[in-house]
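Aggregate trends can hide what the representation actually does to any particular protein. The sequence in question and its structure tokens are set out directly beneath this paragraph.
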Amino acid sequence: MIELLYDIPILGFLFQFVGYLIEVLPIIAPTIIGAATPIALGAMCGFMNERSGVVNIGIEGMMLTAAFVAWWVASLTAQVLPGDPIGPMGMSPALLVGLVAAIAAAMLVSLVHAWLSITVRADQIISGVIINIFAVGITGYLNLLISRSAPPSAGQFRAWDAPAFLADIPVVGWLFDALLSQGPIGLSLLVAVIVMQVLLFRSRWGLRTRAVGEHPEAAETVGIDVIALRYRNVILGGVFAGLAGAYLTIEFGNSFQGEMTNGRGFIALAALIFGRWTPLGSFGAALLFTASEGIQRAVRFGPPEGALGDFLSSVPSQFYSALPYLITIIILAGVVGRSIAPAADGRPYSREKREKRAKASA
């Protein structure tokens, strides 16, 4: 029956491709999840900001800053505290210090963005652009200076060896194996997505955050400190940007290159929009955007037989590299206008204006 479907002109080619994807999905799933990790973490940063009513297009710069700080601090710490990993998944004092430093750096940049957006009430788009430009310039310059001394690598986190019995579960075992065969930052993403999804819709914090993002004036009247909550959420969003940047230099790799985020921060924003400003939806969108990387790996090491294999093998690797960005554009073209952002997203809040309106109405 399946062979008959494959013999249908044109459509048979598509059926064969879908069948190939189903066959190789258990193999490429860890690659897809790994590639989606920094994007999903960046989307989580955007989620914390935009659900509170603050637009953040500076995620790219926050991630780049964190990536540089994680690598640099870990390298310096490795010179002071050399030695083998002392914990599971390749954990070492140098890597842990680098991870903490990356989170702190991203939170500091987030604090700057919060100050400009909330207190100064500057244009939030311009604030994000400034952060991106500054991050590219400062990390590129410092990397040029540091690379002359060739600092030693601190190594990188390793993937967790998931229990064998999980992988042996029929039908879904491969999924457990793919999700759990990640490093500590990748595993933290899975926990964060579930926790934040529950908190958003089932906690007092989530209710207040949604209220501030939709109608801050009304939220203020019931005793919610809009400014404090926005500051807190924007700064905590830096934790996710810090994890995303650190992932690139101390888990996925063990070195830093200029502009190595390569647009992932902007894809994270697209994932946030496509995921309708929810953690779970953003994670799913990130997986969709990075599926091409898994397909590229499958075609390289095990292409399908026949004409489909010849065709996929002849496609330039640059096309697969550009495919996430192409998918992002196509999906956003269909989603923009249908996915509704929080009503107060991007609107500076002024407590003075609310007080004046209250006095006028009195």
